[in-house]
Amino acid sequence: MPELPEVETVRRSLKLKLIGKRIEGVRIYYDGVIEYPDVSSFKRKIIGEVIRDIKRYGKWLIFVLDDYYLLSHLRMEGKYFFRDKDEKVYKHEHIVFELDDGSELRYMDVRKFGKMWLIRKEDIKKIGPLVSLGLEPWDDKLTVSYLKDKYKKKRLAIKSVILDQSIIVGIGNIYADEILFLSGIDPLKRACDLGDRELDNIIKYTKVVLEKAIKKGGTTIRSYTSVNGIHGLFQQELNVHCKEGEACPKCGNIIMKIKVGGRGTYYCSKCQK
Fold it and tell me: Which end of the chain is more exposed for a tag (fewer CB within 10 A), N or C?
Protein backbone atom coordinates (compact mmCIF):
# COMPACT_ATOMS: atom_id res chain seq x y z
CA MET A 1 0.00 0.00 0.00
CA PRO A 2 1.33 3.48 -0.82
CA GLU A 3 2.17 5.33 2.38
CA LEU A 4 3.01 8.99 2.96
CA PRO A 5 6.32 9.04 1.03
CA GLU A 6 4.78 7.27 -1.96
CA VAL A 7 1.78 9.61 -1.99
CA GLU A 8 4.11 12.62 -1.72
CA THR A 9 6.07 11.27 -4.71
CA VAL A 10 2.82 10.95 -6.67
CA ARG A 11 1.83 14.50 -5.66
CA ARG A 12 5.08 15.98 -6.90
CA SER A 13 4.91 14.04 -10.17
CA LEU A 14 1.31 15.09 -10.85
CA LYS A 15 1.98 18.72 -9.98
CA LEU A 16 4.62 18.98 -12.71
CA LYS A 17 2.00 18.31 -15.40
CA LEU A 18 -1.41 19.30 -14.06
CA ILE A 19 -1.29 22.83 -12.68
CA GLY A 20 -3.45 25.17 -14.75
CA LYS A 21 -5.17 22.37 -16.68
CA ARG A 22 -8.96 22.53 -17.04
CA ILE A 23 -11.07 19.40 -16.65
CA GLU A 24 -13.18 19.30 -19.82
CA GLY A 25 -14.84 15.98 -19.13
CA VAL A 26 -14.77 12.88 -16.97
CA ARG A 27 -15.57 9.27 -17.83
CA ILE A 28 -16.28 6.85 -14.99
CA TYR A 29 -16.07 3.13 -15.70
CA TYR A 30 -16.38 1.95 -12.10
CA ASP A 31 -18.73 3.93 -9.86
CA GLY A 32 -17.33 2.44 -6.65
CA VAL A 33 -14.33 4.75 -6.72
CA ILE A 34 -16.58 7.79 -6.20
CA GLU A 35 -17.37 8.01 -2.50
CA TYR A 36 -18.95 11.50 -2.48
CA PRO A 37 -21.12 12.97 -3.94
CA ASP A 38 -23.16 10.64 -6.17
CA VAL A 39 -21.63 9.86 -9.55
CA SER A 40 -23.88 12.13 -11.62
CA SER A 41 -23.23 15.09 -9.28
CA PHE A 42 -19.50 14.35 -9.31
CA LYS A 43 -19.41 14.53 -13.10
CA ARG A 44 -21.50 17.69 -13.27
CA LYS A 45 -19.59 19.59 -10.60
CA ILE A 46 -16.03 18.77 -11.67
CA ILE A 47 -16.37 19.66 -15.37
CA GLY A 48 -14.94 23.12 -16.04
CA GLU A 49 -12.86 23.21 -12.86
CA VAL A 50 -9.19 24.19 -13.20
CA ILE A 51 -6.49 22.35 -11.23
CA ARG A 52 -4.83 25.14 -9.23
CA ASP A 53 -2.58 23.08 -6.96
CA ILE A 54 -2.02 19.57 -5.64
CA LYS A 55 -1.46 19.05 -1.93
CA ARG A 56 -1.29 16.09 0.41
CA TYR A 57 -2.48 15.33 3.92
CA GLY A 58 -1.33 12.02 5.30
CA LYS A 59 -2.06 9.47 2.59
CA TRP A 60 -4.65 11.66 0.85
CA LEU A 61 -3.94 13.53 -2.37
CA ILE A 62 -5.76 16.89 -2.51
CA PHE A 63 -6.42 18.37 -5.94
CA VAL A 64 -7.16 22.06 -5.36
CA LEU A 65 -9.75 23.15 -7.92
CA ASP A 66 -11.59 26.48 -8.34
CA ASP A 67 -14.54 25.68 -6.10
CA TYR A 68 -13.78 22.20 -4.81
CA TYR A 69 -11.18 19.92 -3.30
CA LEU A 70 -10.88 16.56 -5.03
CA LEU A 71 -9.59 14.09 -2.44
CA SER A 72 -8.04 10.85 -3.68
CA HIS A 73 -6.89 7.88 -1.60
CA LEU A 74 -4.90 5.27 -3.51
CA ARG A 75 -5.48 2.48 -0.95
CA MET A 76 -3.71 -0.73 -1.97
CA GLU A 77 -2.79 -0.28 -5.63
CA GLY A 78 -4.24 2.97 -6.98
CA LYS A 79 -2.09 4.70 -9.61
CA TYR A 80 -2.32 7.68 -11.96
CA PHE A 81 -1.24 7.65 -15.58
CA PHE A 82 -1.05 10.35 -18.24
CA ARG A 83 -2.34 9.17 -21.60
CA ASP A 84 -3.02 10.64 -25.01
CA LYS A 85 -6.75 11.10 -25.64
CA ASP A 86 -6.63 8.66 -28.56
CA GLU A 87 -4.95 5.91 -26.56
CA LYS A 88 -7.19 2.98 -25.68
CA VAL A 89 -8.55 2.69 -22.16
CA TYR A 90 -6.72 -0.16 -20.49
CA LYS A 91 -8.12 -2.72 -18.09
CA HIS A 92 -8.59 -1.36 -14.56
CA GLU A 93 -8.50 2.31 -15.68
CA HIS A 94 -11.66 3.32 -13.84
CA ILE A 95 -11.67 7.13 -13.97
CA VAL A 96 -10.58 9.23 -16.94
CA PHE A 97 -10.21 13.00 -16.59
CA GLU A 98 -10.21 14.73 -19.99
CA LEU A 99 -7.94 17.79 -19.89
CA ASP A 100 -8.02 20.92 -22.04
CA ASP A 101 -4.65 20.21 -23.67
CA GLY A 102 -5.93 17.00 -25.23
CA SER A 103 -4.28 14.70 -22.70
CA GLU A 104 -6.01 12.52 -20.14
CA LEU A 105 -5.28 11.75 -16.50
CA ARG A 106 -6.40 8.21 -15.75
CA TYR A 107 -6.87 6.51 -12.42
CA MET A 108 -6.05 2.80 -12.45
CA ASP A 109 -6.81 0.46 -9.56
CA VAL A 110 -6.61 -3.30 -9.93
CA ARG A 111 -8.25 -4.01 -6.56
CA LYS A 112 -10.82 -1.18 -6.80
CA PHE A 113 -10.19 -0.07 -3.20
CA GLY A 114 -9.30 3.56 -3.96
CA LYS A 115 -11.75 6.36 -3.17
CA MET A 116 -12.46 9.92 -4.33
CA TRP A 117 -14.38 12.71 -2.64
CA LEU A 118 -15.36 16.01 -4.27
CA ILE A 119 -16.02 18.54 -1.51
CA ARG A 120 -16.78 22.26 -1.70
CA LYS A 121 -13.89 24.24 -0.23
CA GLU A 122 -15.98 25.79 2.51
CA ASP A 123 -17.08 22.33 3.67
CA ILE A 124 -13.67 20.65 3.91
CA LYS A 125 -13.47 21.02 7.71
CA LYS A 126 -17.03 19.81 8.24
CA ILE A 127 -17.41 16.73 6.04
CA GLY A 128 -15.18 14.15 4.45
CA PRO A 129 -12.24 11.97 5.46
CA LEU A 130 -9.86 14.75 6.59
CA VAL A 131 -12.05 15.73 9.54
CA SER A 132 -11.04 12.75 11.71
CA LEU A 133 -7.33 12.69 10.88
CA GLY A 134 -4.49 13.41 13.31
CA LEU A 135 -1.34 15.48 12.90
CA GLU A 136 1.17 15.47 10.07
CA PRO A 137 4.62 14.23 11.22
CA TRP A 138 6.10 17.74 10.84
CA ASP A 139 3.35 19.56 12.71
CA ASP A 140 4.69 21.66 15.60
CA LYS A 141 1.82 20.29 17.71
CA LEU A 142 3.30 16.79 17.51
CA THR A 143 5.02 16.74 20.90
CA VAL A 144 5.71 14.26 23.68
CA SER A 145 2.78 15.74 25.60
CA TYR A 146 0.48 15.24 22.61
CA LEU A 147 1.47 11.57 22.21
CA LYS A 148 1.33 10.92 25.94
CA ASP A 149 -2.25 12.19 26.02
CA LYS A 150 -3.26 10.16 22.96
CA TYR A 151 -1.53 6.97 24.15
CA LYS A 152 -2.44 7.02 27.85
CA LYS A 153 -5.52 4.82 27.38
CA LYS A 154 -4.15 2.74 24.53
CA ARG A 155 -3.44 -0.73 25.88
CA LEU A 156 -2.76 -2.15 22.41
CA ALA A 157 0.73 -2.88 21.09
CA ILE A 158 2.53 0.24 19.88
CA LYS A 159 2.87 -1.34 16.42
CA SER A 160 -0.91 -1.19 16.07
CA VAL A 161 -1.30 2.23 17.65
CA ILE A 162 1.40 3.92 15.56
CA LEU A 163 -0.71 3.04 12.51
CA ASP A 164 -3.73 4.93 13.92
CA GLN A 165 -4.32 7.76 11.45
CA SER A 166 -6.34 9.73 13.99
CA ILE A 167 -3.11 10.35 15.96
CA ILE A 168 -0.33 10.71 13.36
CA VAL A 169 -1.17 10.57 9.68
CA GLY A 170 0.79 8.87 6.93
CA ILE A 171 2.51 5.99 8.74
CA GLY A 172 1.85 2.57 7.28
CA ASN A 173 3.20 -0.91 7.97
CA ILE A 174 6.58 -0.57 6.25
CA TYR A 175 7.58 2.67 7.92
CA ALA A 176 6.14 1.67 11.30
CA ASP A 177 8.64 -1.21 11.46
CA GLU A 178 11.51 1.10 10.53
CA ILE A 179 10.49 3.81 13.03
CA LEU A 180 10.18 1.36 15.92
CA PHE A 181 13.51 -0.26 15.05
CA LEU A 182 15.38 3.05 15.08
CA SER A 183 13.51 4.06 18.25
CA GLY A 184 14.58 0.82 20.00
CA ILE A 185 10.99 -0.04 20.91
CA ASP A 186 9.55 -3.56 21.05
CA PRO A 187 6.54 -3.54 18.67
CA LEU A 188 4.57 -5.55 21.25
CA LYS A 189 5.00 -3.01 24.05
CA ARG A 190 1.72 -1.36 25.04
CA ALA A 191 1.43 2.24 23.87
CA CYS A 192 0.28 3.37 27.31
CA ASP A 193 3.54 2.08 28.85
CA LEU A 194 5.90 4.15 26.70
CA GLY A 195 8.12 6.67 28.49
CA ASP A 196 8.95 10.22 27.45
CA ARG A 197 12.22 9.21 25.80
CA GLU A 198 10.49 6.53 23.73
CA LEU A 199 7.77 8.97 22.68
CA ASP A 200 10.40 11.51 21.72
CA ASN A 201 12.17 8.85 19.66
CA ILE A 202 8.95 8.03 17.81
CA ILE A 203 8.54 11.70 16.87
CA LYS A 204 12.19 12.03 15.89
CA TYR A 205 12.49 8.87 13.81
CA THR A 206 9.09 9.29 12.17
CA LYS A 207 10.48 12.46 10.61
CA VAL A 208 13.86 10.90 9.82
CA VAL A 209 12.42 7.81 8.13
CA LEU A 210 9.71 9.59 6.15
CA GLU A 211 11.99 12.41 4.99
CA LYS A 212 14.58 9.91 3.78
CA ALA A 213 11.90 7.84 2.03
CA ILE A 214 10.53 10.94 0.28
CA LYS A 215 14.01 11.77 -1.01
CA LYS A 216 14.26 8.23 -2.39
CA GLY A 217 10.85 8.44 -4.07
CA GLY A 218 9.17 6.04 -1.66
CA THR A 219 9.39 2.27 -1.40
CA THR A 220 8.56 -0.07 -4.27
CA ILE A 221 7.44 -3.43 -2.91
CA ARG A 222 5.42 -5.97 -4.86
CA SER A 223 3.05 -4.22 -7.26
CA TYR A 224 3.23 -0.61 -6.13
CA THR A 225 4.66 2.00 -8.49
CA SER A 226 4.19 5.76 -8.71
CA VAL A 227 2.89 7.93 -11.57
CA ASN A 228 3.41 6.28 -14.99
CA GLY A 229 5.28 3.37 -13.40
CA ILE A 230 8.04 5.30 -11.60
CA HIS A 231 9.72 3.13 -8.95
CA GLY A 232 10.92 4.30 -5.55
CA LEU A 233 14.32 3.35 -4.11
CA PHE A 234 13.82 3.42 -0.34
CA GLN A 235 13.47 -0.37 -0.23
CA GLN A 236 17.26 -0.41 -0.56
CA GLU A 237 17.49 1.48 2.76
CA LEU A 238 15.19 -0.72 4.85
CA ASN A 239 16.70 -1.99 8.10
CA VAL A 240 14.20 -4.64 9.17
CA HIS A 241 11.04 -4.67 7.08
CA CYS A 242 10.95 -7.80 4.89
CA LYS A 243 14.35 -8.79 6.31
CA GLU A 244 13.26 -11.92 8.20
CA GLY A 245 16.19 -14.27 8.82
CA GLU A 246 18.80 -11.66 7.94
CA ALA A 247 21.30 -10.08 10.32
CA CYS A 248 20.32 -6.92 12.18
CA PRO A 249 22.36 -4.00 10.77
CA LYS A 250 23.05 -2.78 14.32
CA CYS A 251 23.90 -5.88 16.34
CA GLY A 252 23.98 -8.86 13.97
CA ASN A 253 21.08 -10.60 15.70
CA ILE A 254 18.64 -12.42 13.39
CA ILE A 255 15.62 -10.31 12.43
CA MET A 256 12.30 -11.91 13.33
CA LYS A 257 8.84 -11.72 11.83
CA ILE A 258 5.71 -11.84 13.99
CA LYS A 259 2.07 -10.83 13.63
CA VAL A 260 0.85 -7.77 15.52
CA GLY A 261 -2.76 -6.83 15.06
CA GLY A 262 -2.86 -8.99 11.95
CA ARG A 263 0.09 -7.14 10.36
CA GLY A 264 3.38 -8.76 9.45
CA THR A 265 5.93 -7.12 11.76
CA TYR A 266 9.71 -7.27 11.47
CA TYR A 267 12.03 -6.43 14.37
CA CYS A 268 15.23 -7.22 16.20
CA SER A 269 14.54 -8.77 19.61
CA LYS A 270 17.94 -7.62 20.90
CA CYS A 271 17.80 -3.97 19.81
CA GLN A 272 14.07 -3.63 20.54
CA LYS A 273 13.74 -5.05 24.03
Answer: C
Residue 3 designated active-site: yes
State the catalytic residue, choosing from 59, 106, 115, 159. 59
Q: Using an 8 Å Cβ cutoff, are 130 and 119 in contact?
A: no
Closest-CA residue to 183 (of 168, 162, 212, 155): 162
Q: Rounded to two decimals, what is the model's pTM?
A: 0.91
The closest alpha carbon to 183, from 264, 245, 252, 268, belongs to 268
Report d(CA 157, CA 11) in Å as an integer: 32
- pLDDT tens-digit series, residues 29-70: 999 999 999 999 999 999 999 999 999 999 999 999 999 999
**Active-site residue, 59 included:** yes
Backbone torsions φ then ψ of 50, nearest 5 degrees: -105, 140
Identify the active-site residue in 3, 8, 49, 104.
3
Whether 237 sits among the annotated catalytic residues: the reply is no
Helix (H, G, I), strand (E, B) or coil at 63: strand
Asked about 24 being catalytic, the answer comes back as no
